[in-house]
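Morning. Coffee machine broken again, so started the prediction first thing and wrote up yesterday's gels while waiting. Chain of 622 residues, entered below exactly as on the submission form.
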Amino acid sequence: YLGFNRAFEVFFGARREQLIGKTAFDINLPELAEIYHAQDNELFENGEAQQYDSQVKNIHGKLYDVIFNKAVFTDSQGAVSGLIGTILDITERKRVEEIFKQQQKELIAIFENAPFIMFLLDGERCIRRMNALASLFTGSAITDMIGLRIGEALHCLHTLDTPQQGYGFGLSCQFCTLRNTIKDTYETGRSNHQVETSLSLFIEGKERSLTFLIFTSRIIVDNSPLILVSLQDITEHKKLEEQFRQAQKMEAIGTLAGGVAHDFNNMLGVIHGHTEMAMDLLDPAQPIFAHLQAILQATEHSVNLTRQLLAFARRQAIAPKVLDLNETVEGMINMLRRLIGENIELIWLPEAGRCLVKMDPSQIDQILANLGVNARDAIAGAGKVIIETHSVSFDTTYCSDHPGFVPGEYILLSVSDDGCGMDKEIMDKLFEPFFTTKEIGKGTGLGLATVYGIVKQNNAIIDVSSEPGKGATFKIYLPRHMAKNEDIWKKSPVAHVLQGNETILLVEDEPAILDMTRLMLERLGYQVLSAAKPSEAIHLTKKHAAVINLLITDVILPEMSGLELGEKLIPFYPGLKVLFMSGYTGDVITRQGVLVEGINFIQKPFTKGTLAAKVREVLDNK
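Came back before lunch.
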């Protein structure tokens, strides 16, 4: 080194006295010295200036990316006497270039893997770039589409007579929406976001009747003709949105139906109870007896309708038991055969082994009866109904592809028929209360609504498949009960003696029901103290010196709930039994409609016989 500037000292991390008169070998830069040696010899030989990129380390080991410029200089006789050169530090530029390259790779990867159909158009509206989803959408290879005007590319698909494999437009005037949106962006420079449209598409040769798309077009660089066009298939989102609206509608209908059924139940209870008691006092031979019997039958039919409404609205209290679904269905088979008629073959295919579920046994009866009637009415003449049980399980992968399904272990109860089947329009309204395809007077439209309510109340899943002329299959997935060493529920024998002489405190805020229930109990031999509200009941107990054996109370009362009243009275009568009654319970004695364990409950409206049996059951329970 003969001379150098200050920047050279800083670059190599050495002082002038360390470098003047020294070689790179002398100052312990062997990598740099080897590079210099080879390059300098070549330069001395041909005398031509050189420029080249390289990497060098200074004496502290710091690595630099550099550009060398070197040339020879001569003395007065023209002989080469040395080299002169510059070193340009491009380390930062190289770093930025690498970042830029990485960003380019990432942007390309984002474009290619975006969950949208994407086209990049130039100023002539020609396709400059498109991603794999766009290729699938058009059914053409990317190389075949690059350079085509977007209108040509999409229009040729729009007029296809024979759909190709992949996506392809069916004939749809909605194509104009896409074209006009792009045109507007080119002419105004305005971005168009969330333009929703629908197209008839073909997927792998099969037409999907309606595909919903969110369509956007925007200039991606200011003062540039580049336009990004994206389409997002939101068909599944639309389906979920429709399911959510349907669920909201069903919930609103259920709330209304539950409220109506509750009020109606009270009146039915009064009519039914007084009719029963009047018939008890009459000789069946008297002409009026037949009229009362007709009233009773009409009332019982109305009670069944209101109970179906309550089941749909999930407003009736249930008492789940651990039961073997196979045994429960087996006990219903003979009744179902009578229900559906002799011309329809009933096939029962239970899974081997125990199929344990935890639910109210009466709800299994309701499900099978309603589906049985539904199948019978769908079959014209002779036919076949198949009832099956299977153990199934769903994982998260399956559930992510099947909206409404929840991972877990289930027992499938399947009811299939070979009847007339249903189209999509009927399927969409299948579980709505009062919707029926039967003739006027032939159906209430509450059967499948009842099944739907029971399924939802038990955290189960229902799936229906059907096509016109190909029958229908109802699949109900009941959560499997996994507990071990638990007694299976068996029906307990009905008590033979239904009368008694114990003292009962009766609390009911509806005067007509209070009087009717009091009369029923008194005719059964019980001593009855009746009150219209909790404060009256508490006052009666203070005046009554003898023991009170049973409190029968409505769940919803003024001043306090029936549960709170029972809690206030039990300290004064440690052996006091409590029987709750209600048209529907709310959440006072239930959790989401399921009776709290140990709660005694009777559903309104009830018959005198039902009341007699329930009172005896509670009093005799030790």
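The longest strand covers residues 206-219. Going to sketch it on the whiteboard this afternoon.
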